[in-house]
Amino acid sequence: MAKSETDVDTARPWQSYHTVYTNAKAGMDGVDKEKVQRIVYQMSKGSSYFKNEERKEADIREKIDNMRARLAKLTAADLSHYQMVADKRISELEATRDLSRIWLHVDMDAFYAAVETLSNPSLKGKPMAVGSLSMLSTANYEARKFGVRAAMPGFIARKLCPKLIIVPTDFKKYNHYGDLTRKVFQKYDPNFLAASLDEAYLDTTEVCKERSITGEEIAEEIRACVYEETSLTCSAGVAPNRLLAKVCSDINKPNGQFVLPNNLLAVMTFISSLPVRKIGGIGKVTEHVLRDAFGINTCEEMLQKASYICALFSHSTADFFLSVGLGLGRTDTPEVRLRKSISNERTFSATSDEMFLYHKLEDLAEMLSTDMQKEGLCGRTLTLKLKTASFEVRNRAVTLPKYICSTEDILKHASKLLKAELPVSLRLIGLRVSHFNEDRKGAPLDSTQKTLINFIVSGDASRKVMDNHSDPCVKNDDETSLSIGTHETCSFNDRDTLNCSLSLKLDDSNFTFSNDAGQMEKFQKTVNENVDETKSEVTQLLGADFSPPVEGNCLERMKSEIKLLEGEAASSNQREPFLWVNDYKCSICGIELPPNFVDERQEHSDFHLAQKLQEEESGTELRTSTPRPRVVQKDPIASQGKRKKQKLSPKEGKHIPIDQFFTRSNQNF
DNA sequence: GGGGATTCCCCGT
DNA sequence: TTCCAACGGGGAATCCCC
């Protein structure tokens, strides 16, 4: 009797550890897959990475179980219905089939490794990979014989192949050779599509027609030409569409080619036994789902199980799977595609040191801003990517009313997103900007963007005074009209703090406001209007008994604050709140903030100032506790657990407790 | 209900 | 000795506002 799957799992636990490393890849025939899998398992077992992989595996299994349960519930009538839907869709897709084009997919062989060998011939014939001990970008064919491959950590690769030479990446070199190959492609198809540095799709239909040559001949010619120009080999696939051409280029790798004739029988025969995993877009997870939930292993089986596919997947996903079953792919010449986003990310040793994390964020913001300005991009959605010490990936995004590209703007908003996650131990931080402006000339679309002082003086009534983020150094007032602004205010969960935020609002123009009497008068009018507006908003929020303690002579308050900040009261003790010991430690409460974290330090100073003003006004010590700097001390409720949006259940009714409001707002940053 | 925003997931090099 | 990347595109689920 055959051993059960569980028995096998117990005896060889590595067999259930699904990595991509044992997937069939060019040059990996004859590799002892079991040995590779065992070593990868042994090297990984017990690590945070491994635990996270197990968690992901469990999620996929759950997803598969759900799908199987849904499939089991389908009645005969349902299946008959979905079969009709599938049949209709299949004939519609079939009607789009175009066998007239001759597409070529060219793929350089172990590109980075080949380039490195070219510049250092002593590497020839030796197992070698490009990358680092953390991660390999590619491996040459000698290394692949040991099971070493791209996307494998170097330290595992070394275990598989102790003599492996690891060469660091050098994109300058790869770009140079990439350019040379592209010059060749250009000659055959001026509109060729570069899929990456080392891959391209060419529509050779016209050139074949003009010269009365076949796809096979043109592929040979192009490969020879690439070799002549670069001394590097490449492989090619020729087929009636790009999807198939890509599959074909992998068949006779390295330094080979495969031609799929432009006729229906050839295509359908080719596709009939093709494993789904060979199709671009079907990766480890989708392969797993198709196999375990639907029993689909080959492309042909997509058509056999078409009714199930239509029953469980969305239209677009079902269309994709059915197209794969028919061997259909794109045959049109792709239009110029504009970049959709720009990002950067860095991995480091896991840490919860907030100073370190903010510094990293600052570096990333600066790099991203530089990259954006090089390309003349401005975007309005900023996404912060985090990877925790346990490899959990989180994305937090904010969409702004204005386009940004400066380091200051990126850092300002990224900091807010990061703050909402603290405390946390991270091993990666990334920033991404998307939703670009359409002109893409570098300048923000809104050229009328006001400085803070202009804004206040002009008395823009739309401004939300609830915003407690006063930042005289940054000339962007965008967050004020953003929900995020009000949410952030509500991250404070007591009324004292709300009062404080109102006081702080009055600090907005401290640094830039002139002493001109007319301006002062105008300013006070605006401030008073804003206070009234805010008072009404806050009253609505907290109830009629709320009375902010900031009424009174705002002009006098402003004057005294300006004096304080300009140093006119330098001799008095009033300057004390603005002293930062060693540029990062507050002398009042001892809180530490990175020196370059200007916004937060300013905000913190403002806090002490507001506290002092309140004390002066009431004549009593309102608070004896230390302030609640948002950077370090966070609402423990808001920062704990998952940040998934929480929908209130009907049971919870329409009345949202005020605490809940504050907590939730912070979470939904 | 439609559409934008947010988050997560999947995939590729 | 070392201990799992850096991007970028796109789909889908969910939530929220209009």
From TrEMBL:
Q: Name one GO molecular function term.
A: zinc ion binding
- Taken from the record, one Pfam family name reads IMS_C
Q: Taxonomy-wise, where does this protein's organism fall, top ranks first?
A: Eukaryota, Viridiplantae, Streptophyta, Embryophyta, Tracheophyta
Show the GO cellular component annotation of the record. Answer: nucleus
**Residue segments, region Disordered:** 615-669
**Keyword line:** Coiled coil, DNA damage, DNA repair, DNA replication, DNA-binding, DNA-directed DNA polymerase, Magnesium, Metal-binding, Mutator protein, Nucleotidyltransferase, Nucleus, Transferase, Zinc, Zinc-finger
Q: Which InterPro entries match?
A: DNA/RNA_pol_sf (IPR043502), DNA_pol_Y-fam_lit_finger_sf (IPR036775), DNA_pol_Y-fam_little_finger (IPR017961), DNA_polymerase-Y (IPR050116), DNApol_IV (IPR022880), Rev_trsase/Diguanyl_cyclase (IPR043128), UBZ3 (IPR041298), UmuC (IPR001126)
Q: Where in the cell is it found?
A: Nucleus
Please identify the protein, giving its name as recorded.
DNA polymerase kappa
- Tell me its EC number(s), please: 2.7.7.7
Keyword Nucleus found: yes
Q: GO biological process: what's one of them?
A: DNA replication
Its family remark reads: Belongs to the DNA polymerase type-Y family.
| UniProt cofactor(s) | Mg(2+)
Q: What is its main location?
A: nucleus
The chain's coiled-coil residues are 50-77
Query: Which HAMAP family does the record associate with it?
Result: DNApol_IV (MF_01113)
Q: Which NCBIfam families match?
A: PRK02406.1
